[in-house]
Specification:
The complex is a heterodimer of chains A (350) and B (751). Chain A has nine helices and 20 strands. With 350 residues, chain A is of the alpha+beta class. Chain A has a six-stranded mixed sheet with strand order 6-7-8-3-9-10, with helices on both faces. The chains are: A alpha+beta (350), B alpha/beta (751).
Chain lengths: 350, 751
């Protein structure tokens, strides 16, 4: 049972700053997801924790003990790679047992644990196959099995599901969730898929350009994004952001005018989730396109040439035809998010 | 066969109209070439309508082979210079024109003009005369006058004895005195058979007995060689320097560090004229039981196939005439065969060293030619291997070596005798084999093709075959054709001195001969040992280098280039370079060993160290293999290694369980190509040792080359080629079979 602390991790490649002052704590047994677009530094962060890369500054602690400079094997972490990194010339059995064989565990113990893991992951029939003879999902299971077979202190996942098709991904998500519940091992999970992050994480850490944007429970991030980046990144379809200006408690963006009580004057961004919008009284928009997904209906509307808003209506509902003008959209004040010029959340609606 | 020479034939035949005389008598880079050109122009002026075409003799070892292969290829050749030791072979195969009728019809011909013993060597037993001498040289002893004087020794008298020589040699031998004066030796000894022969003859022994049987086992023979062995290893008054085979051993003498140098011929005076540090001269060889010396000579002959025998004879008389012979003498080619030229100031040169040039003439009466055997060079190689053992190895049973020399020579002579009675090969053998081979190819093609394809495919196929035609023709003409011909040759006895049609049928005798051929056994063993050591070591080194150089760190590009560089250098140049690096006394390798307190072996002169020397050299050229490994290493998914690190594997286990399995296909590739290359090692030993010492570095392909192109035993050489091919094919097959157990192919990688 391990608690993982990252303290002011910084990492620079040449002149490029990959990570900047990253500090976070993964509590004992917690499932923490690091999410961010590609290039945000999340994989580097994971590799630093694993010991595959070293930080330029800062420290990694496990149960309070700094592990910087230790080899991966001395940290006792396990990692699942994006492309699974199964040893192609070894059978599934050999792949699973490799960490134990390297650690020179007794043969009988290896045998027992391989069997136990295989049963847990449904690999019992596949033990003598080579990785090339497995499907993507099966390979994923083997990679999981190889990671969990020696009871590591920390699990590290590097985008493990991104090579799978959508259906399998959902299935494996459930599997990983279940395994974590059963094993209760501290887990750090990296993904660029916010939906994966929302469904898997006890907490989520959003990383952008090497900096932590926000750490919190999934719904907290969804409901109260601390920055406009988090606001847009979390949730599908992405939150509508409308750039404008507040003058005397009135927000103006093109033809749009809204009362913005107690907001300071200056450039301000208005954010509103598509599913918080309903048709009704309010600004008049032009309907550009309609997407019918069955479960929901998405309307793409144009306020003016600069500003578009996506409206998400539940179910398959009748809508005006595309091209219709004067479609009224209701902006409920409790659904509005405000961000200042630097993208920081303004506390107006609180 | 003649089809292969077609372009050459055409180019020769195209000089129409005028009569052409093709003369191949000098090497192009020597002074004598210019003189010969003058002679040719003069001859043309006197004979209108005649064009004398001069061809250069090939350099070095090629000099004696070019003419034979021109004859074999039916090229016009009217006058040729050959070595006297080859005369018997040419005569024996009927390759030369009997010039006796021309001499008899020529009023200006007087045999008294030439040294009688020299002319006698040119006569067949029945008295026919086949040519005239160019220049010759008896073997004498070169003397460092100053060194003798310094040691208080008298200059040898012309009738000095072995005992006199031994005494002088002992006094002349001194270790380095520590004040910068180098060690000196009594004699820098020459070691090829013709140079050793005088000692044998002087001791009353002989190479062949009166019945023409090998007589190397006779006590006097053994005794003579024991004397030489003693000079080197008991008295320690003699030395060689430079590398044993290809280098003459005049280095020590030229450096003023040997009192005597020899027995050796006139050609050294040409080189020694540049010596300014000390006075030197020549004396007859010291006499043993009797006086004797050897004699080397080149002669002009007219091939039987000459298109212009009449003109050839006339030009031959010019070349053996006074003006040209005196010119040859003046530029230092040797002793002219023409007495008048030899006694002229052009030869005796009163104003240049050596003062006693007349010694070369004085010893002629006691000088002997080697026995006129039909393939002297083959025997020479057989004997040389044993001679090198006797002279180089301190602890050596001389008598046993002499007996082996006798047995080898006798076996060779027996075969030579039997060769004459072999049946002729049927004329259809070569075309028949070619037709059969092509038939098999066509049959395979048709069989493979199977069902007739639809029309458009057929058209496409035709186009493909048209495009393949240039390559296909080359493949048939230069690969399949010669290979099939060599298959026929492997079952025959043939030498280029005879027309190609005149092959003798020996069935599989060439192959069975291999089993009793000690040289082949040694050669096979040397090659196998070389391959067995060099290939795995090379693989390991290449892999280690690739592992070191795979990470892109500063300067790694330069290091990679340096490591690869030797792989693109010609093996001949590498050989020449390493011959210097591996020199026993002042080579860089031994200097390096000495720096760390080790005494390096004599490498190329030590039978036990010569193969390791070649292994060492081969390791220098692993760049190509390294590059292949490097490429394969960079294709390994880095995540695999990281996964292994996470799984707790250290450096060794990551290499053993992750990298190495991924590399197995290229390990196999390097193993196969490396083994094939190792078995085909040729250029380096050819340049560096010529196969010696003894047969220690006579690797298979070198032996093949020497058998076919030196000893002209083309049938046997072809058999060796096929056996080597079969061995290699077998080896590759075994390696491939074995590889199934450890090679893992990338095609099995998950996508």
């Amino acid at each position: 049972m391990t608690r993982l602390d990252l303290e002011q991790i910084g990492c620079t490649y040449g002149t490029k700053r990959v990570l900047d002052d990253v500090t976070l704590t993964v509590a004992d047994g917690e499932f923490l997801v690091i999410v961010g677009p590609s290039g945000c530094g999340k994989s580097t962060l994971l590799r630093i924790v694993a010991g595959l890369a070293s930080a330029t500054s800062g420290s990694v602690r496990m149960d309070g003990v700094a592990v910087d400079g230790l080899e991966p094997r001395e940290r006792d972490v396990a990692m699942v790679f994006q492309n699974y990194a199964l040893y192609p010339h070894m059978s599934v059995r050999k792949n699973l047992s490799f960490p134990l064989r390297v650690a020179r565990r007794p043969r009988s113990e290896i045998e027992t644990r391989v069997r136990a893991v295989a049963v847990k992951l449904g690999l019992s029939e596949l033990l003598d196959r080579r990785p090339a003879q497995l499907s993507g999902g099966q390979m994923q299971r083997v990679a999981l099995g190889r990671a969990m077979i020696r009871d590591p202190r920390v699990f590290l996942f590097d985008e493990p599901l991104s090579n799978l098709d959508a259906q399998l991904r959902t299935e494996m998500r459930g599997e990983i969730r279940r395994l974590h519940r059963e094993l209760g091992i501290t887990t750090l999970y990296v993904t660029h898929d916010q939906e994966e992050a929302l469904t898997l994480g006890d907490r989520i850490c959003v990383l952008h350009e090497g900096r932590i944007q926000q750490i919190g429970a999934p719904l907290e991030l969804y409901r109260k994004p601390r920055t406009s980046f988090v606001a847009r990144f979390i949730g599908t379809p992405a939150m509508n952001l409308v750039g404008g200006e507040v003058q005397g408690e009135v927000f103006r963006a093109g033809s749009l005018e809204l009362s913005a009580p107690s907001l300071p004057n200056g450039p301000t961004t208005l954010g509103i989730r598509p599913d918080e919008l309903v048709l009704g009284q309010g600004p008049r928009l032009t309907l550009v396109a309609v997407e019918r997904l069955g479960r929901e209906t998405r309307l793409e509307c144009e306020l003016d040439a600069r500003t578009r808003l996506v409206v998400c209506l539940p179910g398959d509902v009748p809508t005006p035809a595309p091209g219709a003008r004067n479609v009224g959209v209701e902006l409920r004040s409790e659904a509005l998010h405000w961000f200042d010029a630097a993208g920081r959340r303004l506390a107006a609606e609180l | 066969m003649s089809a292969l020479f077609l372009p050459l034939v055409l180019s020769t035949a195209c000089t129409v109209d005028e009569r052409t005389l093709v003369v191949m008598a000098e090497e192009e880079q020597l002074d004598s070439w210019i003189v010969l050109e003058d002679l040719a122009r003069e001859f043309e002026a006197e004979h209108p309508g005649v064009h004398v075409r001069l061809l250069p003799l090939g350099g070095a070892a090629g000099a004696q082979d070019k003419g034979k292969f021109m004859l074999a290829g039916d090229l016009q050749l009217d006058l040729l210079r050959i070595d006297i030791t080859e005369l018997a072979a040419y005569v024996g195969e009927g390759a030369l024109l009997d010039l006796s009728p021309c001499f008899e019809a020529d009023p200006t011909w007087d045999p008294q003009d030439y040294f009688p013993s020299v002319l006698a060597a040119l006569r067949a037993p029945d008295g026919r005369l086949y040519g005239l001498p160019s220049t010759f040289t008896p073997y004498v002893m070169y003397v460092n006058r100053d060194l003798l004087h310094e040691r208080g020794l008298e200059f040898p008298t012309p009738d000095w004895t072995w005992d006199d020589f031994l005494r002088a040699a002992r006094s002349a031998t001194r270790a380095a005195d520590g004040n910068g004066r180098p060690a000196t030796v009594g004699i820098s000894l020459t070691q090829w058979l013709q140079a050793v022969a005088p000692w044998i003859w002087q001791n009353g022994a002989r190479l062949l007995d009166d019945e023409g049987r090998a007589a190397m086992h006779e006590p006097a023979f053994v005794e003579a060689l024991e004397f030489l062995h003693g000079l080197l290893h008991e008295e320690r008054v003699a030395s060689f320097d430079a590398s044993f085979q290809n280098q003459l051993s005049q280095g020590l003498f030229q450096a003023g560090r040997a009192a005597f140098y020899g027995p050796v011929g006139y050609w050294e005076t040409y080189r020694f004229r540049h010596i300014e540090d000390f006075a030197w001269d020549v004396v007859p060889l010291p006499r043993g039981e009797r006086s004797a010396t050897a004699i080397a000579m080149t002669v002009y002959v007219v091939p039987r196939t000459s298109a212009e025998p009449e003109l050839a004879y006339r030009f031959l008389r010019r070349m053996a005439g006074e003006r040209y012979q005196r010119t040859l003498a003046r530029i230092g080619n040797g002793v002219p065969g023409l007495i008048a030229a030899a006694r002229s100031a052009d030869f005796l040169k009163p104003d240049v060293a050596p003062a006693s040039e007349h010694v070369f003439l004085d010893v002629i009466p006691e000088a002997r030619f080697l026995p006129p055997l039909s393939n002297w060079r083959a025997i020479e190689t057989l004997c040389q291997a044993e001679l090198e053992g006797i002279l180089l190895v301190e602890d050596f049973d001389v008598a046993a070596a002499c007996e082996r020399m006798r047995a080898k020579t006798q076996r060779f002579l027996d075969r030579e005798a039997r060769r004459r009675s072999l049946p002729r090969m049927a004329p259809w053998a070569v075309p028949g084999t070619l037709a059969l081979g092509l038939g098999v190819l066509v049959a395979i093609g048709l069989f493979r093709r199977g069902r007739r394809p639809v029309a458009w495919r057929a058209r496409e196929e035709r186009q493909a075959y048209v495009l393949l035609l240039p390559w296909g023709l080359g493949f048939l003409l230069f690969l399949v054709g010669p290979a099939l011909v060599s298959l026929v040759l492997a079952c025959s006895e043939w030498t280029p001195l005879r027309p190609f049609a005149d092959k003798r049928w020996v069935a599989l005798e060439n192959v069975t001969r291999l089993f009793s051929d000690a040289t082949f056994a040694t050669s096979l063993k040397a090659t196998a040992v070389y391959a067995l050591v060099a290939v795995p070591l090379g693989l390991a080194l290449a892999l280690a280098l690739a592992l070191l150089l795979r990470r892109a760190t500063f300067g790694v590009g330069a290091v990679r280039t340096l490591a690869y560089l030797p792989a693109i250098v010609s093996p001949v140049i590498i050989g020449a370079l390493w011959r210097v690096l591996l020199r026993a006394d002042d080579g860089l390798v031994n200097a390096g060993l000495e720096a760390v307190g080790l005494t390096g072996p004599a490498w190329l002169r030590d039978p036990d160290w010569v193969v390791p020397a070649f292994v060492l050299m081969s390791l220098w050229s692993v760049g190509a293999q390294m590059l292949v490994f490097l490429g394969a290493l960079q294709a390994v998914d880095p995540a695999l290694e990281e996964a292994a690190r996470i799984d707790g594997a250290g450096t060794w286990r990551r290499f053993r369980h992750v990298l190495l399995p991924a590399l197995t296909p290229v390990v196999l590739f390097n193993l196969l190509t490396g083994s094939i290359n190792a078995f085909q090692i040729f250029a380096q030993p050819y340049v560096m040792t010529g196969g010696g010492p003894g047969d220690a570095s006579r690797f298979l392909i070198l032996y093949l080359y020497q058998t076919g192109f030196r000893h002209l035993d083309v049938g046997y050489a072809s058999a060796i080629a096929w056996v080597v091919f079969a061995l290699l094919a077998l080896l590759c097959l075994v390696l491939l079979r074995w590889s199934r157990r450890w090679v893992w192919y990338a095609a099995e990688t998950p996508s």
